[in-house]
Amino acid sequence: MINKEGEVFVKDMTLVRFCEKFPEYASKVLVMRAELSVVRRHYLVDLMVMNCFPGRNSCRDIRWHFDGDYYKDNVYVLNVTGPNRTEFLNEDIVLSPPCERKLQGCYLASILVGCGVLSIEDGKNRVYDSRTPHRGVLCNKVGIRVFLRLLASDYIMPKNILKRGFDVPF
After folding, report:
1. Does this model's pTM top 0.85?
2. Cys staple from 9: which of 52, 56, 152, 163, with CB 3.0 to 4.6 Å?
3. What does the CA dihedral 146, 123, 29, 70 come to, rounded to 10 degrees?
4. Residue 29 phi/psi, 5° resolution?
């Protein structure tokens, strides 16, 4: 359920600061951290608590995309509860996307047409890296969606963005 402050959007908040500001998610994000076998300079958290309704994007990019930079070694753990969950391919595909990020979406759209997809399981952690294509979805179910992602990176710096009561978070 959305708290009294409404929807919440957090972007690239340090793990320590996130646990202090959102103690209700601290144990979950620490379990997510334990699933990472890599050591990186920064551990950053993204959180989006949103009201879903038909026609609303579940995230900024509902097309196939990569998080971070395809040619860097970021590692992520994603946990989504509620309706309209993020989709991943249900098979491994060899990809050679262009370096330029704005061209990658078109490349993925042409390569991944007709590929099978799976929505991540409700409340289950999904570990992936910066080379894993995935997509948000156009909401078709009403409910509260909680998107929680932990990022391990050597190059993405903390931004510590926090917005409450946003209409459209992007």
Report:
1. yes
2. 163
3. -80
4. -70, -30
